[in-house]
Amino acid sequence: MSEEVALKMVTTSEWDDSKTWSGLPAPDYSLVIERRADGLMWLRTRGEPISVIEDITTKADGRRWLHVSVAKRKNKMPTYDDLQTARKLFVGEYREAYMVFPTAERYVNIGNPLHLFCCLDQPLGVLPHFEGVVVLNGEARLSV
């Protein structure tokens, strides 16, 4: 079944706007402005408008990956704080997320969005843990 046919089969009353695509509570002051077979597009309605697209797909590694795209209007680049806020609201505090810098031949981008990826099948992460103890001003601290 094509994505277009699947999308037409779902009526508006079947959508639950109280949750994100990955099951987290819907962010305050955000509206779903686009529904697709694989995800949702949200728009923050308070403060500076920021759009977030979230989708979940199974990739070539056989795992389910959550993709979160964060964009501002007028082709402005989202800030670190914008990305952190989107991570908290759409990925969650207890899932590890990654920002990827692909090689030139794999790079695709339209506008200036920033992207996060989270492996839903391994929410604690797929990378090795890089934490270590560092000493700052005579005090030992755990750091990444």
Question: Care to describe what's here?
Answer:
- This protein has 144 residues and is an alpha+beta fold.
- It has one domain.
- It has two helices and seven strands.
- It has helices at residues 3-9, 80-91; strands spanning 30-36, 39-44, 50-58, 64-72, 114-119, 132-136, 139-143.
- Strands 1-2-3-4-5 form a five-stranded antiparallel beta sheet. A two-stranded antiparallel ribbon has the order 6-7.
- Strand 2 and strand 3 form a beta hairpin.
- It is globular and about 55 Å long.
- Residues 1-13 have low confidence and may be disordered.
What Rg is obtained from the alpha carbons, in whole angstroms? 17 Å
What fraction strand? Answer: 25-35%
Biggest beta sheet attributes: 5 strands, antiparallel
End-to-end separation: 45 Å
How many helical elements?
Answer: 2
Mean pLDDT: 85
Percent of residues in helices comes to 10-25%
Q: Could you give the order of the helices and strands?
A: HEEEEHEEE
Structural class category: alpha+beta
Q: What is the topology, as strand order, of the major beta sheet?
A: 1-2-3-4-5
Number of strands: 7
User: How many individual domains?
Assistant: 1
Principal-axis shape equals globular
Low-confidence stretches: 1-13
Highlighted features:
7 strands; five-stranded antiparallel β-sheet; two-stranded antiparallel sheet; 144 residues; alpha+beta
